């Protein structure tokens, strides 16, 4: 199993964003990828909206002996930081491999706190990529020839700002291949004062 720390969007935001994505991309019938599956990106693996999340830190495998310290330190981070005021307000891509919805808001301090907690617990090993907050909408397999630019432009214009308040950080595990199974391993409410989170 691999672990990551994430923010989970509320159901109403998931519903509204999923409707916008379906309106832009079209909705496939049962013979074209399953009911209510977006089309318009042949070969892509569309992420089930129920699995959308913002990754604050990817931890990889975590030694079970490390979990108590990790849980304790993530709890401390949550007590120091207030709920995060965020919004989904556009779309983007990582090359021609990943299509995503942009998440804006002040997450730098929270992500830094989460990563520092994981390092001190011995549960983070070398993931120093800068935070680019997003919800992954689709992945394109290696070798597929696609151009995501037109779809990014269409989604960027169609996605109206969708505000949300992230009220907790969640430790998730994933297991499996291209479509891994996610499980919630722990959840901590963000309870700090706004001043403390700066």
Short description:
With 198 residues, the protein is α+β, with helices and mostly antiparallel strands. It contains four helices and eleven strands; from the N terminus they run βαββββαββαβαβββ.
Q: Going across the major beta sheet, what is the strand order?
A: 4-8-7-6-9
Total count of helical runs of at least 4 residues: 4
Number of strands: 11
Indicate the overall shape: globular
Q: What share of the residues does DSSP label as strand, in percent?
A: 25-35%
Radius of gyration: 17 Å
**Element-level helix/strand string:** EHEEEEHEEHEHEEE
Relevant CATH superfamily:
Cyclic phosphodiesterase
What is the domain total for the residues? 1
* CATH class type: Alpha Beta
Largest sheet: 5 strands, antiparallel
Poorly predicted spans: 28-36
> Which fold does the CATH topology refer to?
Cyclic Phosphodiesterase, Chain: A
Mean pLDDT rating: 88
Oligomer: single chain
Named CATH architecture: Alpha-Beta Complex
Question: How does this model look, in words?
Answer:
- The structure is a single chain.
- This protein is α+β, with helices and mostly antiparallel strands and 198 residues long.
- The chain has one domain (2-24, 40-189): Alpha-Beta Complex (Cyclic Phosphodiesterase, Chain: A).
- The protein is 26% helix and 33% strand.
- The chain is built from four helices and eleven strands.
- The protein has helices at 11-25, 67-80, 108-120, 149-158; strands spanning 2-7, 27-28, 37-38, 45-46, 54-60, 84-94, 98-105, 134-139, 162-166, 168-175, 181-189.
- It has a five-stranded antiparallel β-sheet. Strands 5-1-10-11 form a four-stranded antiparallel β-sheet.
